[in-house]
Amino acid sequence: MSKLTSFARIWLTRSFKPFYFSNTYDSVLEYEDTDNLGLYVHIPFCRKICTFCPYCKVVYNKDDAKLYVKALLKEIEMVGHMRKKEKKEVTSLYFGGGTPALLIEDIRLIVTKIKENFIITEGIGLELHPNDVTVENLKTLKASGITKISIGIQSFQSEFLELLGRSSVEYESMFQALKEVAFETVSMDFIFALPGQTFEHIKKDIEIAFNNQANHVAIYPFIDFSFTSHTFSLMSNQDKKRLLFKIVSYCNEKGYERDSIWTFSKNGKARYSSMTRENFLGFGCSATTLLKEQFKINTFDVNEYIERISGKTLPTSLAIKFTLRQRMVYYLFWTFYTMKLYEGDFNKFFNKKLLKYYGLELLIARMFGFIKKENERYSMTTKGSYYYHYFEHFYTLLYIDQMWSLMKNNAFPDELIIH
């Protein structure tokens, strides 16, 4: 499969040039004139380490957390002071982890520091562990400016939580807390394609969520990273495809709006996604920044992150300067995550014509039934979404797995070349 992804890279970028990431990066981030800019803050602390989770995380320690927050505030300030004009308008702010609620008393402080430098127009989202969904915590978060929450359920059924090494949760108290404290978006995350998991299991999870204050669900396939561990066999691609099609069909029948590859909204209005932004600034360990011509990722090492910030240096571990075609491919890949692509948006972002660069590929995709076109909007079909997932899976294992594997073992590697 690596040969296929390599061929796709060569074809779509029209170049044999690999993706080359180095430890040489810009000390100033040129984001001031960037439109549709999002913000992301990473909180790496967890009570315990879930072996299936690939994200940057460490076991919570009060003293470490205190130093981390101090460094995080400083990084936000450093980047914020790179602007020359007034506060920069951004679309949104998302807190991910880890378990952000472990720093719940610091969330307001972090939001305040963000607002000293940026104007947030579309709200603030935060990820929650089910155990942290209490009335007290929700009130604290709401008072801190949080408008959207995403709860990492994974499954309401104990047999699948056990597979993932997660403990069962008393959900009734969580549901009651959600009744008492309302948010613009209440999203619940689930994992599918676990061994023994059927459509009925997923259907049950979806209905429990929507019957208990959720207005949005995310249903992600299990991805087997090389640096994570599990003891079960993976579901076959054909079984995964059948399961995905049943999930989509069921949600369509119920009137749930599919607003991205893996997410569905109950009322068509709720949204929760920290990934589908044309550009974004990332703060904290492992946080990524994507701008018009560059991509950078911060170190995964908490102590090294704090050390870099204390030296008044950006904690960048690796960075890449995109070629035009590389940036176009990145744009198209993550834009299609939303199931839609608007020709005019692409033309405006690049000041280039979409059809001139990728008209042939879009035509082929339409011929195979992967996408449909209406005026200037391309919409992905259910068939297309499966093959998007198929490609995403191998892209993740080839690109993200290589990068994260390296960075988990080396705080500041010299380079990474992905062919």
Automatic annotation (TrEMBL):
Entry's Gene Ontology molecular function annotations: 4 iron, 4 sulfur cluster binding; catalytic activity; metal ion binding
Keywords in alphabetical order: Iron, Iron-sulfur, Metal-binding, S-adenosyl-L-methionine
SUPFAM superfamilies assigned: Radical SAM enzymes
Domain Radical SAM core: 31-257
One protein family per Pfam: Radical_SAM
GO cellular component, one term: cytoplasm
Top-level division of the source organism's lineage: Bacteria
InterPro entries hit by this protein: Aldolase_TIM, Coproporphyrinogen-III_oxidase, Elp3/MiaA/NifB-like_rSAM, rSAM, rSAM_sf
Record GO biological process: porphyrin-containing compound biosynthetic process
Name the record gives this protein: Heme chaperone HemW
Organism of origin: Anaerosacchariphilus polymeriproducens
